[in-house]
Design a protein that fits this description.
There is one protein chain. A hairpin with a 5-residue loop joins strand 9 and strand 10. It is built from 18 helices and 16 strands. The longest helix is centred in the first third of the chain and has 47 residues. 31% of the residues are buried. The strands form three sheets. Strands 8-9-11-12-13-14-15-16 form an eight-stranded mixed β-barrel, surrounded by five helices. The chain has a five-stranded mixed β-sheet with strand order 2-3-1-6-7. Strands 4-5 form a two-stranded antiparallel ribbon. By secondary structure, the protein is α/β, with parallel strands linked by helices. It binds ligand C2E and magnesium ion (MG) (2 copies). The site of ligand C2E has 23 residues, from strand 9, helix 9 and strand 13. One magnesium ion (MG) binds next to strand 13.
Length: 516
């Protein structure tokens, strides 16, 4: 009751009751008001007066209630519309989102569109920005937001209203209705051109790339959702082929996706069952000819006895986040194995670029070393240049932490990246590993020979050791020995071998240097 009296309806009720009471009192005092001119008895007049006043007040109260109810309904509708908008739109760009896409009705012509007699078709373009993370790191999150808004603005200016969607992150969808098949390729190219034009953010000119995958409704799927799913498959294919690439969905791509999912499952089982093991490839001191270390290389033999190369599974492990678990297993096992070698023989392990995003990487490595009882000075970590690009600050602090504990750092595949020299200037490496591509082409090719000489000279002047990878022939060995390279690695010395074989190898290591 108190709630009712406190409400707007209750207050109106009280007010009207008070007004009714006043009118009744007034009517009693004023015979004219209370039907003074009619020939009724006093009591009848008062009853009539009360009934009329009560009737009038009830009418006013009902009218007020109806008015309030209508107002409440309108507000409710507004709130519903607002909630619906929020659920179906992206807040940053104001573009419709995935839920709005699911509701898209292509059979109904949009406002301003003429109804066509033929069956409608639609092409769904899935777009993903390339290099957005780098720009985000460069200009900060608010700069990244500005970029996404600008991309949305450009796409919205190109496609009809309500046909551009943001599916989250840097993923967009554009739906083109009744686009002839022969124009789809051009449309995709235009989308890429629109996105890849430079964007000014805080006075800085930035640029992102774009990959586009597209598929047709109803050819590639019964519903738009099915089509967007397969256009994503095409996008995946486009992304794998490089930046600013567009590709039309083809059913064979689906087979690849199924195959990839199967491979992922197989890898997951292999990691959890600890089937992937470290093998060890010798590293030979080119001055003394003795084995100075082993590089641990992941080896996977599946249940059919087929060996699967690291090139096949390391990338998948990186993309699916399995690399951390895999690395930890491999490192732990190789730290144990390394203790069967003489003290002076070090262990070298590879880390993937994605692992450099892990703030705990240095402590993970050191904890594993400690738990296996391997002194950090016997451990070397090999990183490639692309591991240093995404977050140079973090990479620097990981390298510093490892150095401080005594772990050595080698820059792997040196000369294959695009910023090798910049990396040498920025970080303190203990070693560079000249990529094997320079070995196969160094003898006889004057330009390559000069580059190799320059690399060795540079590292010597920076007091950095050099390892040369991929020595397969005696002539190559002789060449690199003459160049003053410190360490050699390659099939000439031995391929990666099991832990047991590495012990045997160390025992009866023949001096290949002498025969060179
Ligand atoms: P990488 O670290 O540069 O390792 C050297 C690769 O060259 C190895 O290939 C090795 O078998 C091969 N190799 C060595 N000597 C010769 C030679 O004389 N001739 C030729 N043609 N090749 C030679 P592998 O084992 O197939 O590994 C390929 C790459 O996969 C490695 O390149 C490394 O980047 C990656 N990888 C291997 N194991 C791991 C791992 O445990 N973790 C991570 N993150 N990456 C790994
Ligand atoms: Mg390596
Ligand atoms: Mg290498």
């Amino acid at each position: 009751m108190r709630d009712f009296l406190g409400s707007r309806a209750g207050k109106q009720f009280l007010l009207l009751s008070a007004l009714a009471a006043c009118l009744c009192l007034l009517g009693r005092q004023s015979p004219w008001l209370a039907y003074g001119t009619f020939p009724y008895a006093d009591s009848t007049r008062i009853i009539l007066l009360t009934m009329n006043v009560a009737g009038l007040m009830s009418f006013i109260y009902s009218a007020l209630r109806i008015y309030d109810l209508r107002k409440e309904m309108a507000q409710h509708r507004q709130a519903e519309l607002r909630a619906d908008w929020t659920a179906t739109h992206d807040h940053l760009t104001q573009l419709p989102n995935r839920y709005a896409f699911e509701r898209l009705k292509l059979l109904q012509p949009e406002r301003g569109e003429e109804e066509t007699a033929s069956t409608p078709t639609a092409t769904v373009f899935s777009i993903d920005l390339d290099g957005f993370k780098k720009v985000n790191d460069l200009v900060g999150h608010s700069g990244g937001d500005t970029l996404l808004k600008e991309v949305s603005r450009r796409l919205s200016g190109f496609a009809p209203a309500g046909r551009v969607f943001r599916f989250g992150g840097d993923e967009f969808i554009v739906v083109a209705k009744d686009l002839p098949a022969e124009k789809e390729d051009q449309y995709a190219r235009l989308l890429i051109q629109l996105i890849t034009r430079p964007i000014m953010i805080g006075g800085l000119s930035t640029q992102v790339g774009a990959s586009v995958g597209y598929a047709r409704w109803p050819t590639h799927g019964k519903t738009l959702e099915e089509v967007s799913h397969v256009s994503d498959v095409a996008l995946y294919e486009a992304k794998a082929s490089g930046t600013n690439v567009h590709s039309l969905f083809h059913p064979a791509m689906q087979d690849k996706v199924i195959e990839r999912a199967r491979f992922e499952r197989k890898l997951r089982t292999a990691v959890s069952d600890n089937v992937i093991r470290p093998f060890y490839q010798p590293l030979v001191n080119l001055r003394t000819g003795s084995v100075c270390g082993f590089e641990a290389l992941a080896r996977w033999t599946d249940e059919d006895g087929k060996s699967i190369s690291p090139q096949q599974f390391i990338g998948v492990a990186e993309e699916t986040g399995m690399i951390t678990a895999l690395f930890q297993q491999l490192l732990l096992e190789s730290c144990h194995d390394a203790q069967t070698w003489p003290e002076h023989v070090f262990l070298s392990c590879n880390i993937s670029p994605v692992q450099m995003e892990d703030r705990l990487l240095a402590s993970r490595i050191l904890n594993i070393c400690a738990s296996a009882g391997l002194p950090p000075r016997r451990l070397e970590i090999e990183i490639t240049e692309n591991a240093l690009i995404d977050d140079p600050e973090l990479a620097g602090s990981i390298i510093d932490d490892l150095h401080a504990a005594g772990v050595r750092i080698a820059l792997d595949d040196f000369g294959t990246g695009y910023s090798s020299l910049a990396q040498l200037a920025r970080y303190k490496f203990d070693k560079i590993k000249i990529d094997k591509s320079f070995v196969s082409s160094s003898s006889g090719d004057d330009r390559h020979e000069k580059i190799v000489r320059a690399m060795i000279g540079l590292s010597r002047s920076l007091n950095i050791e050099t390892t040369v990878e991929g020595i397969e022939q005696h002539t190559q060995l002789a060449y690199f020995v003459a160049q003053g390279c410190d360490i050699g690695q390659g099939y000439l010395f031995g391929k990666a071998m099991s832990a047991e074989d590495s012990v045997v190898y160390l025992d009866d290591h023949r001096d290949i240097m002498r025969s060179a």
